[in-house]
Each structure stands twice: as structure tokens, then as C-alpha cells.
Amino acid sequence: MPETTPRAPRGPSGLAFGGDYNPEQWPRDVWDEDARLMREAGVNLVSVGIFAWSLLEPAPGAHEFGWLDDVLDLLHANGVRVDLGTPTVAPPAWFYRAHPDALPVTADGTRFSFGSRGAICHSNADYRAAAADITTRLAERYADHPALAMWHVHNEYGVPVSACYCDSCAAHFRRWLARTYDSVDALNEAWGTAFWGQRYASFAEIDPPRATPTVGNPAQALDYRRFADATLRENFVMERDILHRLAPGVPVTTNFMTALSQCDSVDYWAWGREVDVVTNDHYLITDGRRTHVNLAMAADLTRSVAGGAPWLLLEHSTSGVNWQPRNPAKAPGQMARNSLAHVARGSEGALFFQWRQSRRGAEKFHSAMLPHGGTDTRVWREVVELGAAVEALGAVRGTRTEADVAVLWDWQSWWAQNLQWHPSEDHDPRERADAFYEALYDRHLTVDFAHPEADLSAYPLVVVPALYLMTEAAGANLRDYVENGGTLVVSYFSGIVDEHDAVHDGPVPGPLRDVLGLTVEEFNPLPAGGGVRLRGPGGAELTGDVWTEFVVPRGAETVWTYTDGLVARRPAVTRNRLGRGTAWYLSTRLAPAALDVLLGAAAEDARIAPRAALPRDVEVVRRSGDSGSYLFAVNHTASDAKVPLEAPGTELLTVERAAGRLAVPAEAVRVVRLDG
Known about the structure:
Number of domains: 3
Number of helices: 17
Distance between the termini: 37 Å
Radius of gyration: 26 Å
CATH class of the largest domain: Alpha Beta
Strand order of the largest sheet: 12-11-13-14-21-20-19-16-17-22
Structural class: alpha/beta
Shape: globular
CATH superfamily of the largest domain: Glycosidases
């Protein structure tokens, strides 16, 4: 990307506030009211045109830009900048009539129909040409428009279709494989095609991993996940490069969905290197869990994808959503608390889907900044209050969130882990990541996520919740980290296979053997509902479930031992000193309280001071930069809380001085600019 491209939307001098704006859904006389109410709410950035291809090009080659001209001119006149979409997520009906083979095909051969969104074969040449054309025409027309702050390419790549299995994709896959492997012999070796007689004589014999009588080749399936992700990214890069060429100096983004399991088909480490500004969509999953913990996790992960730099929350909801089995409203004050929790963890503002709640279509029951009930509603009043709060926090723009620990995270490892025929279907790598993150959150530790091969030297503690696929380079990286004084915690079924889903040569856990000081002779998953007990220092007992292993220490000391089951009297948790550091290994799934005990012991090794003075569910996060140091305190509880301050300062939302202990009312947020 050009070095001169901004890393933030052009225009807003403080934090961004606004949301998706879809004026095409409304009569022209509503637009003036929208502009007036945007001013009242403090909106300074909206996303426009994301689903407007059929209106911009109602027939092949016949373009109608006049309505969009009016929208951008109106927004500019009212001080609102525009994140302008390329509408390539929703080609028009006429396009599919002319090119029905651009509709994607499932692995079992079903071709989807037109009538929703994102129904695209990304290998299709006609789609690529049409997407390039509409993107070019938008850039030529609006590159110099004064309202333009940023380009928004496509929408939520990978949702709802991440992979197509049609003949166009088969041909594209073969070309991708030919570039990836030096020869078909190298592919046969990587895929282990000697198993079940799958050997190929040429790339021309290879198809996508379509429906088979029983389990297919896992290495082929893993490569197809990589290919599908790379194909989506090819199309993003194509549009991005057009925009860079025709609109130099305007940043280009696309909205990620980093922590939602619905979007685990995208390797955001790779995507983060391609966008000018990392943006994210986040929606609360209301399944009974503590939703604010997943929110914090999403924000931390998005910041990590951005390399620690500020990012932007491009979509979340003012209240309930419409696509879950049950969609409760947000409680009074929750919208502001959620929004500012994202800001605490690095977002340069808070935007919503959407500005005005739709009356028609699939998302008419999704909440919006301006609800069906209009301005005489609780949601609207809270939107106006939040707009003022976001404006008051403008000084934090450009600062960075400070992290305490790192958690290793690798989408490609998840792809491999979620293939078929593993020792236990009860082991869920995403559940383990959530559990370890929640345990660290409850210890009031701010998390950076890191790729397994990234530089980890800045972190006193690194946690590996689930890393089934691990390269030799990643293993060497972790060994160097521990030898140089780091503290490492590794959970079970990690370091098992290489990048081709082949079990590492030698005893498990492959590249982790030396750093952990042990081998695993055999996995022993537990029956459904089964549990296991562990005994450790001073006779303390822990409990686990799902998984156990036959662990053989080879230099590591045993800290906790199994007391029952096939693994009774064998090591359950070990600790290995290597160089100046320490590596812990956990061979079962610990219950939350037991996991906290383990992480407490590891944190002590890492010399991380306990933060017992902070109440549960009161998160304290710090952002720092040239403009100063800012302490965010977010109280998710129904009780008032007090948070210790290391220095006096000014609370930005109340403009009051604070010193000693900061009072944070129930379900409220306080932000202190610390003196000095």
C-alpha cells in the first residue's frame, strides 16, 4: 500500500461516531431529517452505498449516480464524512441472469440462488470484471469529493459464503496449488496421498474437497481453506489497488469480524497486512455467557490484528440484533458501556449498524441509532448522550492500549483442528481460547493476541490455549522466548501436526517437546460427562474434564498429579525450567476455578503482581501516547466501585478531578487523563 495512505479515516479530528447509512431505503424527503438528526447526535462518519449496486447500475453499463451525489453533498454540508462502500457484496439481479455460474456451489453440488447477500463465487471471471468496473467508476467519480473519508470494500468477507466448489473454483484451485507446490510430487508428499490410494499424477486430476462417502483427505481440506481465504483476499486487493490508484491518499478498509465463530474462515493475520485501516464488526452473542468478556476479547484481537495500532469499530448494535434464536434488548446504559469498552481497547470511535432502523427486509428487527419509534425513545436519547461522550474523549485518538500478556492465536490451526476424526469431539479449541481469555480477564490482565511465529519478547507471560497445528518455526520461537526469560503456559493437544496436518516426526508434542521437557505417550479423552481429579502442592485438589494424557516428564517437574482414572498417579500439570524462563503444561481441561489457580502460579513465575484490589467485572485498561496517558474504568456490575489511581488526573466525561481512588458508578464508565 502507498506509504502516504492514512491509517485512519480522513476528516474527523477526534473519535469517529456514526454508522451505516442506507438512504436508498427511504424517500428523498427523509434525508434532510436524517442530516438534521445526525447533527443533533454528534455523528461525524457514516458508511454509505455498501448494498447499492443495483441502484448505481440498474442495467448493464447504465449508471445512475445522481442520487449518491445528492447524499454525499448533503452529508458534507452537515459536517458528516463518508466511508464509501464498493457494493460488490451484492451484485444486481441482471448480473446473475447474465452469469448464473457466478452463484456459488456447495460441497455437495447445490448451487445457491439470488435473493440474499454475499452469494458470490469469488473465482468467477465475470464477477471479478464487474466488481472491478463498478469500483473504478466510483473511484473516478468520488475520489475528490470533500465528504470522502475512507473506502469500504465489499462487506464482511467470508460471511455467509466462504468457499465455493464449482468448476471455476476447481480450475482456480489447481492454479493455486501449482503456485504453492513445486511439483505434483511435492503435493503428494505434503498431502500424504499414499494413504487410501489418493496419489495424483498431475494437478489436472485434483478437484476441490467435494462430498465423499467418508472422510476425505484432511490436508487437501486444509489447503482448500487456505485457497478460499486467499481467493477472497485476491478480490479485496484487486479493488483496493484500483482505489489506491484513482484516489491516492484515501485509506481503504473492509470490515472484519475477528472474534465471531461465524467468521472463522478468514485468516485475519494475513488480512490485517492488506488493509490501510483495521476495522471490525462486533455483536453480542447472548447465549448466557458474560457478553462483555467476549466484547473485550474481540477488541483485543482486533487491535492485535492491527499490530497494536488503533483500529475502528465499524459496526455494533444500539440494542438487540435480529439473527439469534433470542434477541434481547440492551439494558439502559449498556450501549454506551459497550461502545466505550471498545474505545478503551484501541478503537478510534464507535459506529453502528445502522443509522435508521429498516421497515422492510431481513434486518427490520435489528436495532438502530434512530429506532422505529423515532426520537422519543430510550435508544435515541442514549445515542445522543453517547455522541457527546465520544466527542469528550477525542484526545485519546492516536494513543495505544497497553497489554500485560499475550495469547497465541492462529486461524489456520483452528481450520486443521476442526477437521474430522480427532480423538474427541468434546475438545473445542475455540472454547479453550475463550476460557483462557476469561481467566486472564478476571485477573485484570489486558491481552494482546499474537501469531505463533511473532516476536514475544515484550510479554512476561504467553499463553497457548489450543494450538494443534504448529510449525517448527513456531516451536523454535517459543523455545527462544522461554530461554530468554519468558513464562509459557501450554494447554493440551498443542504442537501435534505441521502446516500440512501431518503429525510431527517423533513423540508428541513435536516442536514443544524440549521447551516443555516432556513427551505424551497417548491421548486419553474422557467419556461424555466424565471428570478427573488432580492433587498438587499441599494436597490442593483441582478438577478437570474432557481430556487426559499419559505424560512422561523428560526434565519437567510434576506439579499436579491425576488421582483417578486410567492416568491415576501420572503427571497432569508440569513445570519446566529452561534457560532463564519457565514453561507450564496442562494435560486436561480444567474447570474455571482450577484454571485460575494454574494461571496464578504462572503469573507469579512471570512476576506479574496480583490485582486483587479490582472488583470482578470492573475492567481497567490504559491507553497512552503523545497526548498523554488515559485510564479507562468500565463497571459492568450493578454496584458502585472504586478503582485505585497511580496518579491524579481529570475525568473526561464529568470534567472532575480524581485522585487516590476513582469512583465508578454502577454500570458506568469513567476515563481519567492522568497528570504528568
